[in-house]
Amino acid sequence: MLFDNDFLDQLRKAKSIVFFTGAGISAESGIPTFRGKDGIWNKLKPEELANFNAFLKNPDMVWEWYQHRKTIINETGPNPAHVAIAEFEKYYNDVTVVTQNVDNLHHRAGSTHVFELHGNIEKNYCIDCLERFDDTTFEMTGKTVPHCDKCGGLIRPDIVWFGEFLPQDVFAKGEQKAENSDICFVVGTSAVVYPAAYIPLGAKRAGSFLVEVNIEPTEISSTVDYSLFGKAGEIMPQILEQVKLFI
Fold it and tell me: What is the pTM of this model?
């Protein structure tokens, strides 16, 4: 792929890079998206599965659904786009991932500075005492929702459900990184889900060079400085190869 000279110049002089990622990058690993013609929400009603009241009404059903999603994720792995993004850390001192995804694939690919706006499916906590029960330290399997061994409360996935606020500290840090970046990549997302979508727009207003990597034009295409259309797993490694030539 041939890249615009202005884009290459921006890569050459950049000191700080932010990757704002969404469901499209994980779709290339085989994880279904939530929107689009094959999206999960076309088959299931989100209000029945992804809000706190639904969890209280039928905790076992919601828990089983998230265990099913976790199984899908565990059977996949980071794709070349995730890996390339992680490798950017070898060539720039300040590389940050701000993701709307909950699948943990950026961490698994090796990225070390990741802000997860919507939570992480491998993390859990008690709804009463807030004790953590993350998958790295506790075995969370089965179709029945587990209970906290300290207070007996229900354990829920550490996911931002519909009607809930994003974690403000995570959002604020991601927003600050984006606004201070030299280049902000928007990868695998149309950037229309708010308030997360404010992050790339804020980066643009602050003077960051905004680059879109999406399979096709999106709502943000008219806003970005440069659009690259195609699979992120093909485009991101090619961008990284360009970086290697001059850094």
Answer: 0.91
